[in-house]
Amino acid sequence: MNYKIGLFRALILFFILIQISCKKENTQNDGKISEKKPIPVSIDKNYQKDQPITGNEKLKVKSVIHFSKKYNSPELWQYKWDMKTGYLEGVHALANGNMLFVIEESDENRNNTAAFVLILDKEGKEIKKQKLALKPKTKYELFTTQVETDNQGGFTLFIKKEDRTLTQSVEEQTGEGRVRYNLKEYHIDKLKFNNTYSGYETVSKSMESIFLKSFQEKGISYIPTGNFSVEYLKGKICVYGQVGKSEVEQMPFVAILDTNLKLLKMNVFEQYVDTKIDKIKLNSDGGLYIEGIENTSADGYYYATNKRFTVNSDLKVTTDKSDKEPYESVYRGPSAPEESDEEESETETSAETQESVVEPAKEETWSTVTFYKDEVKKETYNFKQKGMFSNKIIFEKLSSHNTALWQIQFVFPDNYEVPYINSAEGFKRANGDFVFWLYLTEKSNGDEKQSVAIFVINKEGRLIRQFQTPGYAALTEFRMKESNGQLTTGVIKYDSPYVFYSFAYLLD
With contact defined as beta carbons under 8 Å apart, do 119 and 126 qualify? Predict the structure, then answer.
């Protein structure tokens, strides 16, 4: 009898253990939200109210959202780093799920700076905080940092470096000596980290060692600065700047290096004299799309004209889409002659006898900022704001023909302002969702707090997620990056004391 009871109890215990095991397995495989992660807030369908579309509008979405904090989804985690002063270059996703931050810290007078790489795992735990070694009087320009990731979780940084230890000799003040000096002031450093993050390998080359010989072969005898722009374009390094055959005319150049900093090809665009390149993008055919501004002068006027052209993989110009007319002209010729005291007195007397006329206030117009372009679908995403620091903005999506497809107005409470709309950024996810952020200023009882609001709009133009950072006295350098359905952000609180924060949010 005791034997049967014991066997019965053993069977019951066996079935209980099986059920517990099944529940654990189901919990582990049931999506990306574990019991420790907060559940995102669902957006009420009435939060985004549709507006009537008039007959001449070709909109697919026209709606208004009166902002409410109650729809903010909570953060997954928060990371904090107290610092003296700081600068955040960016947030980068690594192949193993870790997140990379490139950060500069300096003293309060910004005389002594140090560059760091910070690596957090997907739970917000610090994996590595590595100070980048530099000799005295040398400085990394982190805002030009380019990042190449590998498929193991490692990464390589390409950073421009300024050498302030040099002393310019008499021979280096003119001619070829000056060209050499300007080039050797700046270097490109390659810093390679593997996925253990235990130290890194460095390769450093000066602009002189990379470019001097090729410039000499092309007859270049004047270089205003070796502080060229550096960009990483899918396995290659693109360097561009201005050079000249004399000080009178300067021309843009573009060079392609491999990832070992070896010069592969270079071209000086003599047909674009006085043009400074502002932007370079990689085309689908392996060529480049280039934008710049031509600055010229004549008869006391200074003119600025947009230049746009494409080059093939050999850096030869294939198409030109530059503007024919300048978008700006400014007169800076001789100033008008000064009036005599007698004329000035007569003018003042005449003005006093006239009745004062008050001009009617001009109605404020909507200013537009383009902050994202979908190069595949040729769609443009804009912000529109009426007046500076108002509490209303319009998020707009335009077709390839500049026809408005979406107009979603965000109305924030009366004690809110939306500053710096030209700082906002966004990106399109693989599933078609669009994510963008805005700085917000909230005023209460004489105090002001700044936060960042993040919105996720699905491909039908409906708001599906809303996040907001905590409020601080002043914020700057906000950055964000998606990885595995999670949005990781970084931002600097820049009132004393400075603090670097990283917040993570669940997108899916």
Answer: yes
